[in-house]
């Protein structure tokens, strides 16, 4: 007898998943989500499936490749619609997808209501909140440090450029001053040898005549003196 019951139970477990479900026999329930259908990973959310029909159970189904499902007994109060609240703790990107809920009676688990409105759940990845401030601060510090280094390099090259320009300008100025001094010295020498207000012939004459007079002093003293006096008078007349 016990063996017979075990066989029947085993067959029931095998056949139950293959039992066809008839959907659309009743009015569709309403599905809502709290706090939002767009949340970050690790947040807890809750789906609420409600209907004016007092169903015995509600089933929440995730459409798509994962095909997750949750079943809860309905709750209801007097003059209030029946409902069931499905709480999903610490959701992950695996929960992304479209959700619908159905209602059915316990004595007819294969006869479901029409599907509820669909809700698209979007779970986004998030960084560890404990490490985010440190990482953000480190990135900010690195950016500031890079900016300061770049500024110092630009200032260094600008200062070096200005120093080179100043050195070249000073060297050129010294060279020009040296050339001017050389030209001034040359002009001074030329001016010393060529006075403007004197007669070159008179200078030569004054330089030559005394030597000539000295050479002829022994033999022609009287004539040289008279000639020298005439020359001096001639120079005085020319100067006047």
From TrEMBL:
The lineage of its organism: Eukaryota, Metazoa, Chordata, Craniata, Vertebrata. It holds the Pfam family Ig_2. Residues 1-20 form the signal peptide. InterPro entries: Ig-like_dom (IPR007110), Ig-like_dom_sf (IPR036179), Ig-like_fold (IPR013783), Ig-like_Receptors_ImmuneReg (IPR050412). The gene is Lilrb4a. This is Leukocyte immunoglobulin-like receptor, subfamily B, member 4A. It comes from the Eukaryota. Keywords: Disulfide bond, Glycoprotein, Immunoglobulin domain, Membrane, Repeat, Signal, Transmembrane, Transmembrane helix. Residues 29-101 form the Ig-like domain. The chain crosses the membrane at residues 144-167. Coiled coil: none annotated.
């Amino acid at each position: 007898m016990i063996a017979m019951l075990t066989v029947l139970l085993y067959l029931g477990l095998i056949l139950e998943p293959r039992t066809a479900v008839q959907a659309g026999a009743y009015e569709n329930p309403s599905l809502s989500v709290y706090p939002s259908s767009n949340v970050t990973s690790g947040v807890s959310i809750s789906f609420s499936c409600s209907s004016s029909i007092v169903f015995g159970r509600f089933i929440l189904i995730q459409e798509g490749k994962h095909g997750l499902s949750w079943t809860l007994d309905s709750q209801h109060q007097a003059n209030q619609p029946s409902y069931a609240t499905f709480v999903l703790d610490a959701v992950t990107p695996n929960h992304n997808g479209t959700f619908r809920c159905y209602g059915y009676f316990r004595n007819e688990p294969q006869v479901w209501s029409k599907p509820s409105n669909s809700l698209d759940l979007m779970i986004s990845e998030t960084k560890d909140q404990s490490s985010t401030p440190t990482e953000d601060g480190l990135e900010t510090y690195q950016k500031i440090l890079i900016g300061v280094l770049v500024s110092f390099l630009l200032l260094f090259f600008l200062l070096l450029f200005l120093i080179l320009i100043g050195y070249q300008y000073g060297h050129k100025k010294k060279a020009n001053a040296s050339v001017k001094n050389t030209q001034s010295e040359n002009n001074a020498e030329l001016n010393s040898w060529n006075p403007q207000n004197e007669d070159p012939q008179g200078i030569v004459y004054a330089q030559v005549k005394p030597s000539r007079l000295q050479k002829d002093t022994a033999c022609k003293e009287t004539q040289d003196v008279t000639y020298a006096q005439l020359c001096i008078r001639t120079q005085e007349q020319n100067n006047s």
